[in-house]
Design goal:
By secondary structure, the chain is an alpha/beta fold. The protein contains ten helices and twelve strands. Strand 1, helix 1 and strand 2 form a beta-alpha-beta unit. Helix 1 packs across helix 6.
């Protein structure tokens, strides 16, 4: 048993990491902005990535730190650097001051192409800080993460309910279920293997070559029990107009932003085969078809679709 400190533990991916760590018998210390209900095996630390005292309390005595917290979407692009770059710098400083050496950092595939989006650029900057930190770090770049409680892919499931899924320009993407990603992050945090340190991994669901956008739309339709009869590839200009409309309709809660359009139009968000995590450490357990179907069933039970 070890003590794992987690940022972002109340979020979609972070909550899966917390659950997985507890299931494997680890103790957890977790950062949260708001008061949280008591939970066996969890010590909550009230604060955020800008609170240096809270970060010091979070990492003190931790065997490993999982830096999961991040800002994936915002109507104000300046907030990406505040959350993802400065926030990461604050975590690194707290670890260095406390003598905590092991860091598992959650980045994004978008960091491969920082010129396409402010989000990707912020994650690339954060990766550079991690690599220069002198810590025993491992960076994980997840592709599209899905599963129960996810709100980013929710609109695709809602659209598939009507047999229509609008798509970005032609391309392919990898996906991964949140529980599989959590399993990898906890395995890395608990690993003492030198081979996993100072590495950048790009995990996925095990589907070689990822999913073409058309294939993924069809799979989501099957998960919803409804064949997708119309899945048009929308040109960038149309997506930009849709982003503006989403901002008008949903304000700060808009999911399609101008920044997201930037990387949605890139044709290749497939995890690289030469950056796969070591198979002896971790392998995906949830195939895309299985995971998408279970996610759709959860959405239906909860009244989200």
């Amino acid at each position: 048993m070890s003590l794992l400190a987690i940022t972002g533990a109340t979020g979609f991916v972070g909550s899966a990491v917390l659950n997985e760590a507890l299931a494997q018998g680890h103790k957890v210390r977790a950062l949260a902005r708001r008061e949280q209900p008591e939970r066996a095996g969890v010590e909550w630390v009230r604060g955020d990535l800008g609170d240096t005292a809270a970060l010091a309390a979070l990492v003190a005595g931790a065997d490993a730190v999982g830096h999961v917290a991040g800002l994936p979407n915002t109507p104000d692009p300046a907030e990406f650097d505040i959350a993802n770059v400065t926030g990461t710098a604050n975590v690194l400083a707290a670890m260095q001051a406390a003598g905590a050496a092991r860091l598992v950092f959650v980045s994004s595939l978008s960091a491969r192409k920082p010129e396409l989006s402010r989000y990707g650029a912020s994650k690339a900057k954060a990766e550079a800080l991690v690599e220069a930190s002198g810590l025993d770090w491992t960076t994980v770049r997840p592709p599209a993460v899905y599963g129960p409680r996810d709100i980013d892919m929710l609109d695709l499931f809602r659209a598939a309910k009507w047999g229509v899924v609008p798509l970005p320009p032609g391309g392919a993407t990898s996906i991964i279920h949140a529980d599989d990603l959590a399993g990898l992050l906890v395995a890395l945090a608990a690993s003492n293997a030198a081979a996993t340190k100072k590495q950048v991994y790009e995990p996925d669901d095990g589907r070689e070559g990822g999913w073409s956008h058309k294939e993924l739309a069809a799979a989501i339709g099957r998960a919803m029990g409804r064949p997708v009869v119309f899945a048009p590839h929308l040109p960038r200009a149309v997506l930009e107009a849709a982003a503006a409309a989403d901002r008008l309709a949903r304000g700060d809660r808009a999911k399609l932003t101008a920044d997201r359009v930037g990387y949605m139009c890139h044709p290749n968000w497939v995890a690289r085969f030469d950056r796969k995590p070591p198979p002896g450490l971790w392998q995906p357990k949830i195939g895309g078809e299985e995971g998408l179907k279970a996610t759709a069933e959860w959405y239906k039970r909860e009244g989200w679709v």
